[in-house]
Amino acid sequence: MAKVNDKCIGCEVCVNMCPEGFAMEGDKAKVINQDADCIEDAAEACPVDAIEVDSDPSE
Ligand code: SF4
Questions:
Q1: For domain 2-53, which architecture applies?
Q2: Is the pLDDT of residue 56 over 90?
Protein backbone atom coordinates (compact mmCIF):
# COMPACT_ATOMS: atom_id res chain seq x y z
CA MET A 1 0.00 0.00 0.00
CA ALA A 2 1.49 3.32 -1.03
CA LYS A 3 0.29 6.84 -0.51
CA VAL A 4 1.39 10.41 -1.03
CA ASN A 5 1.48 12.43 2.16
CA ASP A 6 1.17 16.16 2.81
CA LYS A 7 4.87 16.81 2.23
CA CYS A 8 4.28 16.57 -1.53
CA ILE A 9 5.40 19.76 -3.28
CA GLY A 10 3.88 18.84 -6.62
CA CYS A 11 7.17 18.53 -8.47
CA GLU A 12 5.76 15.77 -10.74
CA VAL A 13 8.89 13.63 -10.53
CA CYS A 14 6.84 10.59 -9.52
CA VAL A 15 4.28 11.17 -12.28
CA ASN A 16 7.03 11.46 -14.88
CA MET A 17 8.90 8.44 -13.56
CA CYS A 18 5.88 6.29 -12.98
CA PRO A 19 2.83 7.41 -14.94
CA GLU A 20 1.20 4.03 -14.38
CA GLY A 21 1.28 4.58 -10.64
CA PHE A 22 0.81 8.31 -10.06
CA ALA A 23 -1.24 11.21 -11.34
CA MET A 24 -1.45 14.84 -10.36
CA GLU A 25 -4.52 15.95 -8.49
CA GLY A 26 -4.46 19.71 -8.17
CA ASP A 27 -1.02 20.64 -6.88
CA LYS A 28 -0.21 17.25 -5.37
CA ALA A 29 0.37 13.76 -6.67
CA LYS A 30 -1.74 10.77 -5.78
CA VAL A 31 -1.39 7.04 -6.23
CA ILE A 32 -3.66 5.76 -8.97
CA ASN A 33 -2.44 2.20 -9.13
CA GLN A 34 -1.06 0.41 -6.08
CA ASP A 35 0.19 -2.42 -8.26
CA ALA A 36 2.46 -0.38 -10.53
CA ASP A 37 5.98 -1.81 -10.47
CA CYS A 38 7.59 1.61 -10.43
CA ILE A 39 6.03 2.90 -7.20
CA GLU A 40 9.07 2.11 -5.08
CA ASP A 41 11.46 3.71 -7.56
CA ALA A 42 9.35 6.84 -7.58
CA ALA A 43 9.26 6.84 -3.78
CA GLU A 44 13.05 6.82 -3.74
CA ALA A 45 13.21 9.59 -6.32
CA CYS A 46 10.78 11.88 -4.53
CA PRO A 47 12.84 14.87 -3.31
CA VAL A 48 10.82 15.34 -0.12
CA ASP A 49 10.06 11.71 0.77
CA ALA A 50 6.34 12.31 0.38
CA ILE A 51 5.60 8.82 -0.95
CA GLU A 52 5.02 6.35 1.84
CA VAL A 53 5.32 2.71 0.91
CA ASP A 54 4.71 -0.05 3.35
CA SER A 55 4.95 -3.45 1.87
CA ASP A 56 2.73 -5.90 3.66
CA PRO A 57 4.06 -9.40 3.09
CA SER A 58 0.62 -10.85 3.68
CA GLU A 59 -0.80 -9.10 0.62
S1 SF4 B 1 7.86 13.18 -6.47
FE2 SF4 B 1 7.15 13.55 -4.36
S3 SF4 B 1 6.97 15.78 -4.16
FE4 SF4 B 1 7.11 15.29 -6.33
S5 SF4 B 1 4.97 15.18 -7.00
FE6 SF4 B 1 5.62 13.09 -6.48
S7 SF4 B 1 5.03 12.83 -4.32
FE8 SF4 B 1 4.97 15.01 -4.76
A1: 2-Layer Sandwich (3.30)
A2: no
